[in-house]
Amino acid sequence: MNWLRPLAAGAYRVPFWAQHRAPSCPLRAFAAHPENQVAEGVVKVQQPKAQLGTDEGKKNFILKTPKGTRDYSPKQTAIREKVFNTIISCFKRHGAEVIDTPVFELKETLMGKYGEDSKLIYDLKDQGGELLSLRYDLTVPFARYLAMNKITNIKRYHIAKVYRRDNPAMTRGRYREFYQCDFDIAGHFDPMIPDAECLKIVHEILSMLQLGDFLIKVNDRRILNGVFAVCGIPDSLFHSTCSTVDKLNKATWEDVKNEMVGEKGLSPETADRIGEYVRMPAGGLGLIEQLLQDPKLSQNKLAREGLGDMKLLFEYLTLFGIADKISFDLSLARGLDYYTGVIYEAILLQPQNAHKEEPVGVGSVAGGGRYDGLVGMFDPKGRKVPCVGVSIGIERIFSIMEQKVEASEEKIRTTETQVLVAAAQKKLLEERLKLISELWDSGIKAEMLYKKNPKLLNQLQYCEDNGIPLVAIVGEQELKDEVVKLRVVATREEVDVRRENLIEEIKRRTCHP
Amino acid sequence: MNWLRPLAAGAYRVPFWAQHRAPSCPLRAFAAHPENQVAEGVVKVQQPKAQLGTDEGKKNFILKTPKGTRDYSPKQTAIREKVFNTIISCFKRHGAEVIDTPVFELKETLMGKYGEDSKLIYDLKDQGGELLSLRYDLTVPFARYLAMNKITNIKRYHIAKVYRRDNPAMTRGRYREFYQCDFDIAGHFDPMIPDAECLKIVHEILSMLQLGDFLIKVNDRRILNGVFAVCGIPDSLFHSTCSTVDKLNKATWEDVKNEMVGEKGLSPETADRIGEYVRMPAGGLGLIEQLLQDPKLSQNKLAREGLGDMKLLFEYLTLFGIADKISFDLSLARGLDYYTGVIYEAILLQPQNAHKEEPVGVGSVAGGGRYDGLVGMFDPKGRKVPCVGVSIGIERIFSIMEQKVEASEEKIRTTETQVLVAAAQKKLLEERLKLISELWDSGIKAEMLYKKNPKLLNQLQYCEDNGIPLVAIVGEQELKDEVVKLRVVATREEVDVRRENLIEEIKRRTCHP
Predict the structure, then answer these.
(1) Does domain A215-349 have CATH number 3.40.50.150?
(2) Beta-carbon contacts of residue B413 (< 8 Å; ≥ 6 apart)
(3) Assuming Cys at both sites, which of A25, A330, B33, B98 could form a disulfide with A511, CB separation 3.0 to 4.6 Å?
(4) Tens of pLDDT along A46-88?
């Protein structure tokens, strides 16, 4: 018997970012999810008379997420999960443990750690009790955790959302609530070995995500300190000058010089002296040697230390085979105050969708460095725990991935369902419930339509829409014959399977180790 | 050559909750993590002179997490991950998609949804712009998401932290920041089919977690509505009376009656009439039939509907083979206002660690129900989207799991590292870096000590401490012979492996499909 009208089979392909790693085992079919992409949509609502309370009358309110935040639809979380899996598998490959900390901290814990950026911290309302703030990054909570638990040696990762009351630019992946994926190594070790591993991790992740060509800029706060010192900048202006220099990746030297002279009060001559260093072409060992020969800079102890370690770092990166993607760049300064040694930042080198009208802005997708003083700020006795780490910025990567998926017309499955339990005729709800229960209990991912008497065509259409590869059909004749008709959605092939062999048969057809 | 002092091999076992599912593939060896369990520790700190700012001088502050919150140590996140994996695999088995929403919502979005509990909502400080609150559960954000994106049909799960300014009781797993694992089905379907699936899910999860015997209480808001109506309670007191009745699982009938009469202003006779119903022994089909015969209650339209659906629900649960764990219980009322139909709550039936001095308090570990009106409260035209869902409460389950692990003296691995790259003599850092880089690039989880010249004994001890099953040792002789010495930590067996075969050999020894 064949009561099945053939349906057009969808063209499912494995997306580029899934090819290098196998998920558990479902059939590699991907189906579009029909729903919403209206994450930023705003709807004016005339709220109906509240059904649940009497104190809530009619009033207008805006149906939206808070400014600078967004929901993730099933399609978006599916893409996000692939990115996370790539990052997590890398962090695990490097032997990291996991910790988690609360989304808010005592306000005092965050105070005095972020310099000028402290104004971007979200505070909670004083409702009695402690004064709290939402975390601004995962680094300060990590340092607080180490000091509180007297941990002097750990390698951990932490993936979580952080909060900044910044000006959002959501089309370019800049949000007020966003994920950071942090990997840090804490402990007293020999120079540059953990630092080099952090850079290896950035290299592995950006390579696996296939985001196109990238470059990792490195510098060292000690070298910058030496540069500023020989140019005549007082120590008290060090962090402030770092902030200004850090703008070189977006602004011209003239703008940066103007800020130094106009806002920071440096003389034009001092600014020009700084310019001579930070505008040097980025490089590798050559630039290091050049600076080590520099008559003024080579007299500065911190700079000499930093340059020596930079040389060591490049040796290790060469052994890792990744030195070609690393660029020693004196213009890299990083914004945050707490860095004390090596700093780095990874940038994507070209727009991913140059052919599209609005390319995703190219920019920093990872950054980090060494912060040897932060834990000591929390420790009762000021004991230092040297740390180095890296933070992968996910939102920009998501934006690129989303655009790639859209451009490629790949269908993304948002579920992993292996089989739909369907009925060929009416009055078979009980049989469907019994069968699906058996499948669930055997670990098979199964769905059914929540109708007493769904039409077969609707059941098959549901499989098409959701990329479900198999249909287990119960019918009157099949019940008599003690079989279930198993239909392969892509090929429309149908085969009667004895009821007792069904689970094995489904597993065989959906898992290809 | 054998320069290796034998070390005591740890006794690693697979923990009970890991036996039913295989993680990716690492050796199933579990090692204790030496660090911290001082999650709730409080340290008085004399803050050292701030190194990074000048506006932060010396002052006392408390080094702690905010009240009612905690950090998760690596050991705790490892246990947590197993619990999450069990829950997520169940949600996926039932074909759920994933969505995510921001941690805060517009304050207005949460207003008028939680009744008396609204006072427990965390508000953010008004720093200019929108008024925001931290989410109190995942249900209201889900309903807001559906209305905003005009979604009328979805099955999704969402695992995230929620926030309640409640009185914390952390030893019993009650926190101010805690996880909820929500599964919900939205859409217009035939009665009780999705509702039954939610109960099946609770049953599957509690069975797989092996938390001991459990019971799922069910009731229906429509039946309660009928009961209260025939007892003479006005509609306006319905939610308030539900709150009071809901206390029956912790308080005696006398206390509950006192609250009805003293605080809610009911007459003692009215309270007693309610008592006659809500104190009926819980049951199944028998109780349903008894109530359908009740001369007063059977006259109430809502109650008849609710009882009819309850009968249907039990039919479906019987087909699922789980009716023995389900108890129709008129004393179950649930606290939140938004339920409109079936409600349920799962409790563990006995203390898990009765032999220990402080048993984990037995209580509710899952709850949920039908809320057909909530989405309509957000929709501009009041269009309703019927929903039913369940929320798994994780903290209490974590507490039990943690105690079980501690009692069993199982060693929990907090990393998945397969191999440590070690050196037999000094001056082999370069060789270690080259080798580990190859291993990482082949997808092998590898670590090395961050020392230039670590002692072999320290390297082997690191493997013991962290449950790393293999050591790849480079030595001078091995380099000459173009081999690597592979040592199995548990058996101390050593074998020379040709360098070009090493990756294959490690994979062979650590993956058992």
Answers:
(1) no
(2) B12, B29, B30, B31, B78, B466, B467
(3) A25
(4) 444 444 443 344 356 789 999 999 999 999 999 999 999 999 9
| Residue B120: C-alpha distances to residues A133, B241, B246 (Å) | 17, 20, 18
Residue of B nearest to A372 (CA): B51
**B122 in a known ligand binding site:** no
Interchain proximity B71–A105, CB inside 8 Å: no
Asked whether residue B334 is marked as a ligand-binding residue, the answer is yes
* Nearest CA-CA distance, residue B372 and chain A, Å: 11
On the question of a common fold for B215-348 and B415-510, the answer reads no
How far apart, in Å, are the Cα atoms of B474 and each of B421, B434, B502? 8, 11, 12
**What confidence tier does A38 reach under pLDDT thresholds 50, 70, 90?**
very low
Would you state the structure tokens that stand for residue A167, as one six-digit string?
């000006």
Fold of A10-212+388-415: BirA Bifunctional Protein; domain 2 (3.30.930)
Distance CA A392, CA A371 (A): 17
Asked: is B415-510 a CATH 3.40.50.800 domain? The reply is: yes
Indicate the average pLDDT of chain B: 87
Weakest mean pLDDT among A162-166, A211-215, B332-336 = B332-336
Annotated binding-site residue numbers of A for L-histidine: 137-139, 164, 180, 184, 334, 338-339
How far apart CA B165 and CA A27 sit, in angstroms, is: 45
Residue in chain A nearest B203 by alpha carbon = A441
B180 is an annotated ligand-binding site residue: yes
Q: Does domain A417-510 bear CATH number 3.40.50.800?
A: yes
Token digits for A475? 């019918």
Question: CA-to-CA distance for A62 and B359, rounded, in angstroms?
Answer: 48
d(CA A131, CA A141): 16
pLDDT at B236: 87
Amino acid at B490: A
Q: Which of A376, A417, A450 has the CB atom closest to B190's CB atom?
A: A450
Burial zone of A357 (CB within 10 Å; 0-12 exposed, 13-18 middle, 19+ buried): exposed
Q: How far is CA A25 from CA A466, A509, B224, in A?
A: 17, 10, 46
Would the pLDDT of B357 be above 50? Answer: no
Residue count of chain B: 513
Dihedral angle at the C-alpha atoms of B165, B169, B170, B172, nearest 10 degrees?
-130
Q: pLDDT tens digit string along B226-261? A: 999 999 998 888 888 888 898 888 889 999 999 999
What CATH code would you report for B215-348?
3.30.930.10
| Chain B residues close to A194, C-beta within 8 Å | 450
**CA-to-CA separations, B257 to B217, B244, B248, B277, B345, in angstroms, rounded:** 22, 9, 10, 13, 22
**For residue B50, what is the nearest residue in chain A, using CA coordinates?**
A377
Contacts of A206 (CB under 8 A, 6+ apart): A214, A346, A348, A365, A366
CB contact under 8 A, A101 and B71: yes
Residues 6+ apart with CB under 8 A from A308: none
Which residues face A347 on adjacent strands? A215, A364
A–B interface: beta-carbon pairs under 8 A: 333
Contacts of B435 in chain A (CB under 8 A): none
Distance from CA of B299 to the nearest CA of A (A): 24
Domain positions in chain B are 33-213+388-410, 215-348, 415-510
Domain at B33-213+388-410, CATH class: alpha beta
Predicted pLDDT at A69? 96
pLDDT band at residue B40 under the 50/70/90 scheme: very low
